[in-house]
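USER: Please consider what follows.
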Amino acid sequence: MIGKASGIFFLCLLKHAVSVPMNDFFMLGTGTFFTLGDAEESDCVQGSIVSEYCGDLFDTICVARDGALQLFDGLFGTGPPMGVPHSAGALEDVGPPMVAPYWCDSSNGVVTYGAISMGDAGADVQLRKADDCVRKGFPLKAPAFQSASLFIATWTNVRPPGGGQTNTFQSVIATNAAEDETYVINQYLDNGINWGQCNGINAQAGVTSATGSLGPPSSNTAGIVNVEMGSNVGEPGKYVYCVHDQDKEEPVTCTRNGIQYEVNEEVVTNCAERCTCQASGMFTCVPQRCPPINGPTCTASGDPHYVSWDGRRFDFQRDCEHVMAQSCGSNDFVISAIMIIVEEVFHVLEV
């Protein structure tokens, strides 16, 4: 026996803001790079890149397993520092300039780092990628910025002390040929931030500055675990900081579903919440309820039954697509009900 089943299908496609995919991470390629061993807490690289930071030049970058970089003018003592302990306090209290994509006591995972410069094999693609990040983030201040060297550090699948879920993030220091312009790019893998505390202390993120520190408002709060959803340059999971001249920051925008919003601009999502763009580049949202419907309605249901805007009832037993509502003069906004008749085969068992 062959029977026909029918029904109305509604298709809803939701777009969501995606953070940084792995193929958007910077790569060291065939250049010289290093990896922290399991027993190593930090390591320093001298002379591979010279960066201006808050008016001073630094030629040594130290990489800590705990998700931070520090800049020094030459090595000191008898060997490299052991890394800044996370208990040292706020970013601005740690002494030498510090870049912290995700500063928290960490264990396991892989930490790779190194520098690439103009002329290195495959470097041009990475340098231009950095230029694009900086120019998009600072269109007025750095419309023609051109990287000459990059220091790239990537923390892959690092865990909090005692084990647990993993985090993956990256920090890039980009410097021009004249060594008088330096930008920091901190970025976080899409779905790559899964823990935000170590030893009961919230992780911190950002960079030290001449007057304190710059970073996401979630830094040193429980919300740091959602850092990949925010941005200060309109791209979720990506933060760009100017560290050579911090007096002229660009206006900030917030991004949702690929759309940029100005500070204080509001957006309503699914009648469930109202979100406001903050100066941090992130939205703050409050729940809300949809207003009651006082006007006419149009419905589609069952097998199949329609009630039009003027209250008339229709039944239509065929494959069809019924436009319920549509924007005037364009197809930018359309709500449709699709009727599909499906043939099904029923096997009848004779006894």
User: Anything to note?
Assistant: The chain has three domains: 26-250, 251-291, 294-345. Confidence is low (pLDDT under 50) at residues 1-16, 75-83, 344-349. Residues 123-137 form the longest helix (15 residues). Residues 294-345 form one domain.
